[in-house]
Amino acid sequence: MVCGRCGRVFDETKQDYCGYCRTVHTPKGEPIRDLKGILKYITDKFGSDTLLNQKLTDALIADFFPKENQARRLCFVALYDGCAKKLYAVREKPFEVRCAAAAGCIKSLRDEIGLKGRIAAEAVEAVGCAVGCEISFKKSEILPASETESKKNITDAAEQYSLGRHFDRIRDYEKALYWFESAALQDYGEAEYYMGSYRLEGRGGVLDVNSAREWFVRAAENGVAQAIYMMGYFYAEGIACELDEDKAFDCFMKAAKKGCADASEMISLCYENGVHVTKNSELARKWKKYTGIGDFPSEETEAPEPIPDDGEELYQSARRCLAEKDAEGAAMFYKRAAEAGHARAQCSYGKCLYTGNGVAKDPAEAFRWFKLSADSGLNIAQYNLGVMYLKGVYVPKDTEQAKHYFALAAKNGHEDAAKILKKLR
């Protein structure tokens, strides 16, 4: 089967998802990316009552649809206030009763969360379909950005981004910056890229290359190809970071494989001039024509290995749970990311266990996760081990071991560790 997202071929008899971009497909070969399809897949696989547990549903979507962040965020909002439970309870009731319950869910999403009515209706319909509650609503037409801007309480990141693009097109950069920043603060990748561009070029009144790089990094983490290309540009020129040609070329390659034309052009120039790679005019020609569809130009004959799960998606899910003050959800995602080998998640999960935030307090397990993270070179984990040895938490008091870990943390840039180490000496 040919993947409808990245264009690569995978064996649908062994798995229903592409091993390269992790996109799940229907038996007909169509990629599942919308909320309705995602929820149907989850309920078909685990039962319709799965949606009654919001955290479990969110965890399953993170596992099976790690790239569909926007649909996942909308799902998390759609299950707000027991939406699935209300629709599940009336699924066998008359049509009028089902629609009345659904209308109540839409009103709750619209009035209490600020979700646009049309989007709220689509989200509730998707949940209703997944739990076996047939409902339908007549939806109004999508308003143009200029009309939507006058509405109050616009909190949906996609709408905020749309408004930013509208004001960007008419060159009202101050308003565009306001809406891009609103969406970017909700972890909306494309908006984060525009924030980087605005800070880099000074549009909207603020020129700050350090801030620009931070926004590009965040957008790159969300898979925005143009942001990954800009990361390469920063590394290549040494802007707001150390000049690093290896990292620059790596970023250009990643962005080019995602279909970024600027990155493909840059890779083409590298092969044409023999910069960073062996000169190869044939590969230069192929990269110049590459559009991001199909296998990328390469001297290798074997297919590339599937993208490994490094736990980053789960780690970001944990951070979003913390922002929503969901300590249990954050601990659950930190644990799963830690088990995938994510060093920062290992340290964060260790802290959850150390403080009892979201999980039962367990200093022994906390020590184990801090140790794994510290062995990866993370300074905060090394600092935490130093504190545990200094105070005698779970382990016997041992000043020499404490000094050892404080020294490692200080060497890796941890200022508090350096201060404590100075006092101990």
Describe this structure in words.
The structure is a single chain. It is built from 22 helices and no strands. With 425 residues, it is mostly helical. The protein folds into 3 domains: 35-130, no CATH class; 154-257, Tetratricopeptide repeat domain (Serine Threonine Protein Phosphatase 5, Tetratricopeptide repeat, Alpha Horseshoe), CATH 1.25.40; 317-424, Alpha Horseshoe (Serine Threonine Protein Phosphatase 5, Tetratricopeptide repeat). The longest helix is centred in the first third of the chain and has 19 residues, at 95-113. The chain starts with 34 loop residues before the first helix and ends with a helix.
Characteristics:
425 residues; mainly alpha; Serine Threonine Protein Phosphatase 5, Tetratricopeptide repeat
The parts where pLDDT drops under 50 for at least 5 residues are 138-152, 299-304
CATH fold annotation of the largest domain:
Serine Threonine Protein Phosphatase 5, Tetratricopeptide repeat
Strand count: 0
Query: How much of the sequence is in beta strands?
Result: under 5%
Shape estimate: globular
Tell me the CATH superfamily of the largest domain. Answer: Tetratricopeptide repeat domain
Give the class-level CATH name of the largest domain: Mainly Alpha
**Approximate helicity band:** 55-70%
What's the helix and strand layout?
Layout: H1 35-46, H2 54-64, H3 69-78, H4 83-89, H5 95-113, H6 117-130, H7 145-148, H8 157-169, H9 173-184, H10 189-201, H11 209-221, H12 225-237, H13 245-257, H14 261-273, H15 281-289, H16 312-323, H17 327-339, H18 343-355, H19 363-375, H20 379-391, H21 399-411, H22 415-424
Helix pairs in contact: 1-6, 2-3, 5-6, 8-9, 9-10, 10-11, 11-12, 12-13, 13-14, 14-15, 16-17, 17-18, 18-19, 19-20, 20-21, 21-22
